[in-house]
Design goal:
- About 30% of the residues lie in helices and about 30% in strands.
- It is α/β, with parallel strands linked by helices.
- The protein has 2 domains: about 160 residues, Rossmann fold, CATH 3.40.50.11700; about 130 residues, Rossmann fold (3-Layer(aba) Sandwich).
- The strands form 4 sheets. Strands 1, 2, 3, 4, 5, 6, 17 and 18 form an 8-stranded mixed beta sheet that branches.
- α4 packs across α5, α5 packs across α9 and α8 crosses α9.
- The longest helix has 16 residues.
């Protein structure tokens, strides 16, 4: 069943649980050096809404003892009378192994699934979301994202790979000409300004600006804009302000900009995780291309602490709340 509801439920996860039918979920999440990687698990455990959990431990090409010690610290917080398993993966490994892991996770679930994207790299959670949306066994799907207390003041990520599509998010026609590019504004452009100048200078481009970000995030997002402007001459009418937490608003903005899928669109998810999730959902429904310059290094202190955990209901009892 596929309906485009105007009302798309979301809010802090504890509140969302209080407003939904009580059922136990199977959770898939990332075990990372960031404190917030266990927040969804801890909230689900406290609310007694979790049956099992699978944590993917993702090892970056540039990984240090500092990364590993923080992952071990967070792993030690994952406990309780719950079926918990761990699976180790390399960031740039072939996707066949991830597909197999996700399909096994779905087969062993009761069809009620939560994906915590808080610390998942995009090349992982995009494929996970796509697999869950395609599966008829998944009856209810929540996606959660936790905000940290603060981000590192230094470079959050570095050493990006070449510009390429996120695995499986490429059009069937390799010669497809894009009508539009939609770019999420984040902290780190990772070579994007020069790429747009060299390859897509004639392409109509729109930017999603997370607003209001608040300091010091405010300064870093505007630095992103300034770097883009230095190579592509940004105009104010190209920038669309969106609430970085409001997934329905971001999704509907994308639908509007693309004329409900009529425009062939290239998506570049450089913004917050919720913005990337909106792009992921849109791309899944329209077979749109998603391109990125994947970092191969993430700072061990990328973020610290945990502020809030937000939940987004994508599907409930076979009713899909998002469509194009």
């Amino acid at each position: 069943m596929n309906n485009n509801f105007e009302f798309k439920p979301w809010g802090e996860l504890e509140w969302l649980f209080s407003k939904t039918v009580k059922s136990n979920f199977d959770l898939i999440a990332s075990l990372s050096p960031e404190d917030r990687c266990t927040s969804t698990f801890e909230i689900c455990r406290s609310a007694k809404r979790i049956k099992s959990a699978l944590f993917l431990e993702i090892i970056d090409p540039i990984d240090t003892k500092g990364h590993n010690s923080l992952r071990i610290k967070n792993k030690n917080k994952i406990s309780g009378n719950i079926d918990v398993s761990f699976s180790t993966h390399k960031l740039l490994e072939p996707i066949s192994g991830l597909i197999r892991i996700v399909n096994n996770f779905i087969d062993n679930s009761d069809g009620n699934i939560i994906v915590d994207i808080s610390t998942f790299p995009k090349r992982f959670f995009f494929l996970i979301i796509k697999s869950l949306l395609k599966s008829s066994k998944v009856k209810t799907l929540f996606v959660t994202c936790s905000t940290p207390k603060k981000y590192s003041s230094g470079n959050l990520s570095d050493n990006p790979n070449s510009w390429t599509h996120i695995p499986t998010f490429v059009p069937d026609d390799p010669d497809l000409r894009f009508d539009l590019a939609i770019i999420g504004i984040g902290f780190m452009p990772l070579g994007l300004p020069q790429l747009l100048k060299d390859k897509y200078s004639q392409l109509t481009t729109k930017y999603l600006f997370p607003f209001p970000p608040g300091p010091p995030t405010y300064q870093r997002t505007w630095e992103f804009v300034n770097l883009m402007h230095s190579s592509t001459r940004l105009e104010g009418k190209q920038i669309y302000r969106v609430d970085s937490l409001n997934l329905p608003e971001i999704f509907e903005t994308i639908v509007s900009l693309t004329q409900a899928g009529e425009k062939s669109t290239l998506l570049a998810p450089y913004g917050p995780k919720t913005m990337s999730l909106a792009m992921c959902l849109y791309a899944c429904f329209t077979n749109s291309a998603v391109y990125y310059t994947q970092p191969t290094y993430y700072a061990p202190d990328y973020s610290s602490g945990f502020s809030n955990c937000y939940g987004y209901i994508i599907k409930s009892n076979d009713t899909l709340f998002y469509s194009v």
